[in-house]
Amino acid sequence: MASTAERLDVEAAQPRGYTPGSEADFDRLYRASYQRIVRTLIAIVGSQQAAEDCAQEAFAKALRVWPSWSGGVPAEAWMHRIAVNTAISHRRREQVRALPSLLRRLGAPPPGRDPATDADERSMLAELRRLPPKQAAALVLRHYHGYTNREIAAALGVSERTVGGRIADALATLRNRIER
To answer: Rounded to two decimals, what is the model's pTM?
Structure first.
């Protein structure tokens, strides 16, 4: 690791600012920041090779927009932002590519549902539609999606007590209809 005096000597030897659109300045930015950017990207993408690929892609993107760089932020910080965004996109693409292998590991989905269950659900759906919408919403969120009363309250913008009342009223109404 370089001492503070060595770093100051290196910094003093390099000219300060960059001119947008200057090919020589972009080359200088590349030489000055490439290794730091690759080290940053390794932490994001996990491998030297992927980090170098992302860095190259980021520098290619930056070169295309170099003439429009405003100079409002330091050039290396601007370059890091582009590189980090490129690495994040790379990770997203990798996750999508990994999905088919994950699905193969999980195996085929279970066989189709029983038609009797579907018939019961259709009649239940008809009964839910007859409920007041606010009661139906609370009941579906609770029993179909498994939300807690607190989560339902947050989703509907009401108190937990109101959610509990709506669910109780909906269940009582359904019980009365089914018992008839």
So the answer is: 0.49
